[in-house]
Amino acid sequence: MSKERFYITTPIYYPSDHLHIGHAYTTVAADAIARWHKFAGRDVLFVTGSDEHGQKIQRAAKKEGVSAQAYVDRIVSTFKVLWDKMNIEYDDFIRTTEPRHEKAVQTVFQTIYDRGDIYKSAYRGWYCTPCETFWTENRLVDGNCPDCGRPVELLEEESYFFRLNKYAPRLLEHIEKHPDFIRPEARRKEMVNFIQSGLEDLCVSRTSFDWGVPVPFAENHVVYVWFDALTNYLTALGYPDDQKMQDRWWPADLHLVGKEIMRFHTIIWPIILMALDLPLPKTVFGHGWLLFESGKMSKSKGNVVDPLVLIDKYGVDPLRYFLLREISFGQDGNFSERALIERTNADLANDLGNLLNRTLSMLNQYFKGVVPQPGEGTEKDQAFIDFARGLGPAVDKRMRNLELNEALIAIWQLVGKANKYIDDRAPWDLAKAEDKGELKTVMYNLIEGLRLTALLVKSFLPATGGKIWAQLNLKEDLDAQTLAAAEWGRLLPGTKTRKGDPIFPRIETKAEKRPLSKQRKEKKKPVKKREGVLLNIEEFSKIELAVAEILQAETVQGADRLLKLQIDLGSEKRQIVAGIAQYYTPLELIGRRIVVVKNLKPVKLRGELSQGMLLAASAPDGNLELVTVSSAIPAGSKVK
Ligand code: MSP
């Protein structure tokens, strides 16, 4: 029998700005789901990517004075750095500027045009550039975008239109017949209301700018960015050329998106597919928003949290755990550093970390670290075993139903029961008995419980699963293990465990200091005036200045102001440490070309080697900006 298959996607994110933990939330959730299905023995395809066209990006590039392509190239490279750091195991990454995607978009557009569902007309109406959305006058709220509240622009241009309206009855019927198509339920109702209130045909081409996929049959027209972006889900399957891939993976099992882009995924995208005569995705799930103490995260509010900073500070699994456990999947949830620390200390350090630590300590003490042969157990032993036995299938059911936080709660019930089992069975008392039979059973059960925990938790916390596995010193390759391995009793007596350091050291609350987002604000420190000294040209020419590309950026433990950068100087790579943490987050830096002084004596700052100094302009009000050059100038170029 062929394996069940599962095709899952995330939204493709705009590289108009850097990713923040809101974006990481969707991707981590998708990663946990994808990993789980693989673990459960299914064939999985997990696709993410970047949505690189449109007016918003073209404007952002212009503002920075670089070409749109150079702009997106730099920011998209930071997406990949972030996903690697977060242990995101995607199978494909679709960039909408790739030729394979342009071809897919043009084929979709041409096919629908040939079938008569795209026609030429003129658009006169409103447009929200930040949301890349067309609005009719009657949907505006106080004259602004009803989604984001920002001002809209009046557009008047020749455009091609897509017959959305024609398909509305068919779409409503599909929604009614397929209760799993739009989830959760509240979103389904919202979408049905929206469709019932009347669908206008959609403008699907633009002529007032050119950063997009050209409409194949009409000069000066580029495809509307959402029409372009949604097609990425087919690009990943080699559309239109690779029929085998499409047969194998289409329709998608799950498009995971934030609730604000449900309309595009449950109205426009299905209608594109209907017009192409393709089946509709099985489920579009709209999850809630990650909210911050000061409301939704945005640059203007200054509450943008760079996930790389959080990872440097707390580790990747605490962040993954927090995102997946704290928020009821489908609902909005709050993010704060304090809550992240509390969750980490309570669930990870106290419950799971201590369980592993004290169990292995006892095993060392009583049986030299070797797993004993269990005997007949008591009722209490059996109750623990019974719970653990049913856990794998129970978590699978939760995951199939997209109840991610519930799945974690179930796994932590096992952790909780194991801790309680230790207290109830008091191995230290059993150790005093002449007959060590009961002690052997209890210790076996505890280690077996930990083995199951490692297996069940690894889709959510890949590094943690690996650490537990390593301390249990199990020989099988953890990556190759499936749900079948989570069957009770597979642990071999005689296994010699290898206790290591605590897997989650407690985070001292003083480490919290100030919220990360505030750090950037507290920067005003007037610059001291210095007497000018005149240099002659020989003196100046002693300073070797060169262009360097920033490859990596990290925070420095215990130093709020410092960032550690790995830079490429063309012929060599170096590390420099710079006092710019209050002005830039790591993700904002990766890929930038800066100017550095090459021939400064290396120094150590907070224990980190700094082999050079970067140049930055410092304004009288204390603001600071790095001196940068565009990607047209290669790393290593001399600055004179
Ligand atoms: N490019 C479009 C998507 C095209 S998909 C064919 C887009 N990009 S985006 O960069 O703005 O990303 C939006 C997505 O990021 C949301 O749908 C959601 O998945 C995620 N999030 C961004 N901010 C978020 C929160 N504060 N909370 C939760 N998710 C958030 O829209």
Topology:
Blueprint: E1 5-13, H1 21-39, E2 43-50, H2 55-64, H3 68-85, E3 92-95, H4 99-114, E4 118-128, E5 133-135, E6 153-162, H5 164-177, E7 182-183, H6 185-196, E8 202-203, E9 205-206, E10 222-223, H7 225-230, H8 232-235, H9 243-249, E11 254-258, H10 262-275, E12 283-287, E13 290-292, E14 295-296, H11 307-314, H12 316-326, E15 333-335, H13 337-367, H14 379-400, H15 404-425, H16 427-430, H17 437-457, H18 462-472, H19 516-519, H20 537-541, E16 545-556, E17 559-568, E18 573-578, H21 586-589, E19 593-597, E20 603-605, E21 608-610, E22 613-614, E23 616-618, E24 624-626, E25 628-629, E26 638-639
Parallel strand pairs: 1-2, 1-11, 2-3, 7-12, 11-12, 13-15
Antiparallel strand pairs: 4-5, 4-6, 6-8, 9-10, 13-14, 16-17, 16-19, 16-26, 17-18, 19-22, 19-25, 20-21, 23-24
The structure holds 5'-O-[(L-methionyl)-sulphamoyl]adenosine.
